[in-house]
Each structure stands twice: as structure tokens, then as C-alpha cells.
Design brief:
Blueprint lengths: L1 H5 L7 H12 L4 H11 L7 H17 L7
Helix pairs in contact: 3-4
């Protein structure tokens, strides 16, 4: 995109800004850690409400850092 280099310091699209922010601030393996935590999650001795709350939190974390289907 020619405009991206013509106007330094500005983002020309939402997707470009999102890509730049992710590459700067998101750890490379954070999506894998969230997914692993989700798959390991068990109710154990805690209440069903606490268990479901953790599942919802992990699901939200995975949505914020999605894995590609190829991974």
C-alpha cells in the first residue's frame, strides 16, 4: 500500500493497524497457551459456576488471539 509508506505514523486501515499492534504486542505463542489452558480445564472440586466462568474467560482469550486452522 503506497499510502502506508507515504504517511508515516498513521494507519490506513483497521486491518493494517491490527496487524501492526499484534506483531508488536502479542507474544508469538499466546494463542497456543490459551488453547492449551482451555483443553486442560477441568471442573475438579470447584463449583459449576466457577468452572463455566473460567471456560468463558478462556474462550474470550482465544477469540482475541485466534489460531489459524493450519496450526
Amino acid at each position: 500500500m503506497a499510502r502506508e509508506t507515504a504517511t508515516p505514523g498513521y494507519f490506513t486501515s483497521w486491518s493494517f493497524m491490527e496487524q501492526e499492534l499484534r506483531s508488536t504486542f502479542l507474544l508469538a505463542n499466546v494463542a497456543y497457551r490459551h488453547r492449551s489452558s482451555f483443553l486442560r480445564c477441568k471442573q475438579g472440586k470447584r463449583s459449576l459456576q466457577d468452572y463455566v466462568m473460567e471456560l468463558h474467560n478462556l474462550e474470550a482469550a482465544m477469540a482475541a488471539a485466534p489460531l489459524s486452522e493450519d496450526a
